[in-house]
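Quick one: structure tokens for this chain, please?
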Amino acid sequence: MAALRSTVARLLGRTTPTPSAPTPPLVGFVVHGAGGVHPASAHVRVTGRMTALAASGAARVAQVDPVRWADGFDTAHLDVLLVQRDAFPLAALDAALARAAREGTRVVAEVDDDFFTPEARARLAQAEYDPDRLAAVDRVVRSADAVVVSTEPLRRVLAAEGVDAVVVPNGVQPGLWDADADGVRARDTGGTRRVLYMGSATHGGDLDLLRPVFAEATDDDGRPVRLEVVGVTGDDATWFDRLPLPGDATHYPDFVAFLRAHAGRWSAGVAPLTGDRFNDAKSDLKFLEYTMLGLPFVGSDRPSYRGADRHGGLLAGDDPAAWQEALRTAFREADDRVARARRYVVTERTVGADQPGERAWRAALGLS
């Protein structure tokens, strides 16, 4: 009887080895979503890299149904199993880890937020994370053969928990950001300048930092500067404007396309962060995204964005006057600062390129 076809055999990328070439290893990954529709974190941290890995021919890759693989209904032998965050259900983890041990499958945990300090767990519990989801992250991380994190502060959080981890910074996926950034910044019409703040609907407290900044913000010519929000919060207010997202733009590639289509309306991008341990472990993804939109970056002077100022970004403390001055500098020096930032992102922060972060990611998978 013909063997049942494994669900994992639906590969994102396929290679056709020559008759004498060995079959590339099979890397399975577990993320939320399916059929190419995933949360933004999965696109940024996992699926983009998996697509590039498959295209390189170094491995075959496929999304794995975690319960089917844990139960043995999916019979494919995986050389590597990468699990992002809490994507592996807690109830199936023991069986999956036992199977991995029997079959010599390397288990890699991927986390890009602080799920471990008491402050962070309390914050997550107040959001969408129930105890089983938090326990699943903890179990995977403590059982994995290798752990990948997005920032050095997050690596230190795990080190305090007795877990070694390797830092693989976020990168941009070339297929999403190939448009030329030159000339897409806001055309100077002499009217109000718009500044973009975009993100998920968990940044309401960070948004509040900007209220006094934009209460009286002007550029060097005295023109008013207005904040425009995409996502971030479900609340409305009179001190900022909202650019609504179309329904299909919740999918990350569509979200990126939406931002690119509107990039010409903004003169800068901002990224405020309140000072707490959860935020301190976050990455500089907004710096990368604003850069690829052709927008000069102004962010909070927090651990997440330190270093961006070496590559054209601007950092400000919590003082509204410091933010206003940084915005005026961003407007004046936009061309130079975006060019510097873009060179850095393209040469050092691009998914799939021969760069230190990408080499570290492959090494964590055991592929180098």
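Confidence is low (pLDDT under 50) at residues 1-15.
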